[in-house]
Records
---
Amino acid sequence: MRWDAFAEACPQIASMAEERLRTDEVVMLGTIRPDGRPRLSPCELDFAADRLCFGMMWQSRKALDLLRDPRLVVHSVPIGRMNPGGDIKLAGLAVEEREPVVRDLYTAVLRRRIDWAPDEPFHVFSLDVLEAAVLRFGETAAARLALRWDETAGFTQLRHPDEPA
């Protein structure tokens, strides 16, 4: 589901994810290579047109991966070994955004953020969210968090791995 629908379906995770991703501006993006092996690439992202968007250089390897097989995973960039911000994990399908209005909104957001936007041609994909999770470790139970969402099961607060069974 598109980001706006996901945010409505699971505000508990979407709000944390959006805050973190807007702050970090970069994620680790997992795609699938032609031979089936995984590819992990840093990728900038922006929220535009009610979508979570990824801009990519024209015909880059990760863009070609997504054009061939739209499955992807997004992981927030850990900030050190203890990673106090926790992990944001999103999985889903890439949607190639070809509509001029969406591309224009994306470039406007990008220009506001970094005072630059690419010239055509370039790729813009958005994430169709199928699964989401947040995992945060901490010294206290209050600091720990383990949340999961998918379209079938909906939102679930999980037992944290550090909590006794």
---
Amino acid sequence: MITTSDFREGLLIEDDKGNILEILHYQHHRKSAARAVVRVKFRNMNTGAVVEDSFRPEDKFKDVDVEKHPLSYMYTDGGKAVFMNNESYEQIEIALDRLGSSAKFLVENEEVEGLYINGNFFNILLPAKVELTVVDTVPGVKGDSVSNMTKPAVLSGGLELKVPLFINQGDKIRVDTRTSEYVERA
């Protein structure tokens, strides 16, 4: 069993309803006369929803048996993404709606980590940064800015974000998968 004193960012726990929750952020909070509480921001791994909740320090949660195996993204077939386990060469299908926003970062032959909970395939974990190609953007005009200006761009996975003016259609850029923000030109 896990208590709130064991919490750390990225930890997976199971709540009393059977949902797998990933801890995104937590904070121990205590007002002068009030009882201490732990405020936690979770991502529900079943639905992708981000939820905030408060717990007492003595609350207990079930530990989740987590394994990670390397997978390669192969292709999308209808509403499913197909991955290959790099160890057993087994092909695994997962619905795109279950991947949520992660589906926009997938690039063919890209390595990701497969998340196995209690021995069953559950979801994927993306690398911190991925390289994507700019599919569509407006041309930037030189001398059009005084400071850092950005423009909208559409990337190969369908992701839309703001990029600097010097980025053109066809350029490869690195994108942070946690924040969906431009990092640098590849």
---
Amino acid sequence: MHFHAVDYAAKIPQIRQYLVSPRLRTSYPREVPFFEGVAEIWLANDADQLASLQSPEFLNGARADEPRWAAFWETLAIDTDPRTIRDYTGGSDALTKVYVLLKRSPSLKLREFQERIVEEHGGLLDGLPGIRGVVIGLARTTLYGVGEPRFDAVEVWSFDDVEAAERALASDAARPIEKSWRDLVDDRYLFTFVGREHWVIRPGDR
């Protein structure tokens, strides 16, 4: 986080925003066992994404540095289109993030899942007590051109701290969320990850 992100990845000119969330050890249910951090990277469009992967800052910098610290066989990249349910507007400077990886139920078509996870399920997430921000990232359509991606969506919940997140999950407002997951999600592919965000390139810096 302190070296790769700052010294290499942040120098890729096409990246508009960039944060990393190192793992926090919690008692959250269904925690993914083999990830130690999440990187959230914002790019403006497809052209910028392609250009970033072809840039010397990526090829000779970030990519060349990755083998020194990253286990490629345990790295997961999910290219998503974000749907903002609640935009974070104030509070703690470094939020606790709960990431939820989801695969749709086999009984649902992709379009139905995408609509319901945003319109129905997203509203339930917005009702969690103490929640500061909610974003649902939908796996991009292009990923389905070469087969099924490992996950169809990533929910990102923001709280002031771990205690606030745990209170929210223990609240009555969490019960409808769990029922919604049972209706929409393949239970075999529902995982959580909890981290504390550290901004490398903040909104408005570029």
